[in-house]
Design goal:
The structure is a homodimer of 158-residue chains. Chain A is mainly alpha-helical and 158 residues long. The first copy, chain A, has 7 helices and 2 strands. The first copy, chain A, binds a DNA duplex (30 and 30 nucleotides) through α4.
Chain lengths: 158, 158
DNA sequence: TGAAATAAGTCAACATAACTGACGTATTTT
DNA sequence: AAAATACGTCAGTTATGTTGACTTATTTCA
């Protein structure tokens, strides 16, 4: 009788997750490098693009990094015209963040690469697999964060 | 008619992948911190544990980092008795790597945490979901790396 | 209205984990 | 004996994160 029982460590999924994520995030690296950006810039650009007008403090909440850490990359993105800031209409202390046309375009290039990898994978799998995958990834998130993430990912992008 | 066609970026999966991987790798962080280790140590320890007697150069191949980078964390793991080195029987230039009892035990603790998260997720999903998930993660890996990864993950752990 | 709280930015110092390039040593191969 | 290989090490650099303290502008509240 095999020891592959309920208590066996899931080395296969642990390792597949590691390699899959590495290659998935590796796609945009080439384009980012060309502009002297790193993954930190990618994450900031992505979430600003997906949440136009987001406040700095809400972006910090999503990324779970410090203000100082965000400050450095955000400054570069603003200086090089990928992101712009506008004072909040209701609360002028806020600096609401938006991607510029240049930032939006670059963001599209990056997500296109990642979408291609995802679509290639899904296309080789049985119908309905994308729902299973979505469900799995969702359940891998900390329980107390799930609703917040659900809110984030269901944003429309017309 | 919606624009959610074949060319739409898969923002949902892109973001789910990001959050899921962050929380997945976050589990071991607590234990690692207590010992003054980081994720780099975790990766080294894990792959040595899974490939007893692995050569340094093969480990570099798996991790895709430089010798200098590996050197630092490996030295710490050896100094603190989580990993031991033995000269190769056939080629004494080699320093074959093994986890010590202490290292093996610690490794088990870490993978237990990650396995629990995986099992909890899978248990809430339809039968056969783990196969779908495995297939998806496998297909997300660079095509030219897949056979190598397949070889790695199918190792038996008695 | 004046004090306290909030949103954001900034300065300085530091830690980790990666990188490049060069060089050394032991051992094996040719 | 020379070349190649496996591994280690030194020095310097970069990207991305951290903590703690402080400033400025603005809003909220007693």
């Amino acid at each position: 009788m095999s020891k592959k029982d309920i208590n066996s460590p899931r080395f296969d999924l642990i390792e597949l997750f590691f390699f899959a994520y590495r290659d998935f995030t590796g796609d945009p690296d080439v384009l980012l490098d060309e502009l002297g950006f790193g993954r930190a810039h990618h994450r900031v650009l992505h979430f600003v693009h997906r949440n136009p007008g987001i406040r700095v403090s809400d972006l910090l909440d999503i990324l779970k990094i410090t203000k100082q850490s965000l400050g450095r990359v955000l400054k570069q993105l603003v200086d090089e015209d990928f992101i712009c800031q506008e004072p909040g209409a209701l609360d002028r202390r806020q600096r609401l963040l938006y991607t510029t046309e240049k930032g939006t375009e670059f963001c599209a290039q990056l997500s296109k690469l990642q979408t291609q990898r995802i679509n290639k994978a899904i296309s080789l799998m049985p119908d309905g697999s994308d729902d299973i995958v979505r469900q799995f990834l969702y359940l891998m998130i900390d329980e107390n964060e799930r609703s917040e993430v659900a809110r984030l990912i269901t944003k429309e992008t017309d």
